[in-house]
């Protein structure tokens, strides 16, 4: 509740900590996990204003239906269920009011503290605290532009469809049980992202649903791992933040990811903090000249923790 009251930056920090089972006891992890999609929602008047400013008209005119009560809210945004004029159900992710101003103020404070800590303490220097905070700041700033998230979603879908780097004898789609939601580009701006609505439950709450439908949890985990490894080793792009709050078990039995900052987009729960990553040693800006990426080199580089891909996905020399 304290992190929630402190605002966007600290909610995001709590989300990051909620994945660190190696640092915190389970009681803390369970409480901080509430920040992934159960943070306090912004007031509807502010959300309506943001939608009107970015879409050029009130939501009642743009959409056939728009639910003013969000089913989920996270650090940067909240999600509303809506229906397009053609009848298609969509999830509208809307940025929290004044999120950018709050984030910039808080990041300035964090960076000042990190610099002093790095200069004046042995532990701060040894762990590279200034670099860690700069990385956190760059990630959070990127998440404030939903056009990046929309582009990442399309990029992963395109790589999967094209079967980039796979041998012709292989199945063109190694992830047939994983759904990537469609992005509605005409309704997507820096502060608003509209994607296909998918019914399901996040994996941290999916145990009861899986058991009721007779879904083997081990097989489910194996299918997701196979998909992630296929993205890393053959596609060249992969979801870099596949924690349980960012993955959903759909009502039809398939899986999806609901956070595409890192290939990401939210459906229907909001959570942020991932990015598209490319294997730094074997991927080129020009796919026309890059040729087939080497799965072995990708895997060796990634598995030894030396991948220095940028948040936007291109390799760093």
Summarize the SSE layout with pairings.
Layout: H1 2-6, H2 8-17, H3 26-32, H4 44-55, H5 59-62, E1 65-66, E2 72-73, E3 77-83, E4 89-95, H6 99-120, H7 122-127, H8 129-143, H9 146-162, E5 178-179, E6 192-196, E7 200-202, H10 207-212, H11 217-235, E8 237-239, E9 247-250, E10 255-257, E11 276-278, H12 287-290, H13 295-303
Parallel strand pairs: 5-10
Antiparallel strand pairs: 1-3, 2-3, 3-4, 4-6, 7-9, 8-11, 9-10
Helix pairs in contact: 6-8
The H/E string reads: HHHHHEEEEHHHHEEEHHEEEEHH
Shape: globular
Low-confidence blocks of residues: 260-317
Distinct helical segment count: 13
Q: What is the arithmetic mean of pLDDT?
A: 76
Radius of gyration: 20 Å
Helical proportion, percent range: 40-55%
How much strand content do the residues show?
Answer: 5-15%
Q: Report the end-to-end length measured between terminal Cα atoms.
A: 42 Å
Number of strands: 11
Characterize the biggest β-sheet: 5 strands, antiparallel
Structural class: alpha+beta
Describe the structure.
By secondary structure, this protein is of the alpha+beta class. It has 13 helices and 11 strands. Strand 2 (72-73) and strand 3 (77-83) form a beta hairpin. Residues 260-317 have low confidence and may be disordered.
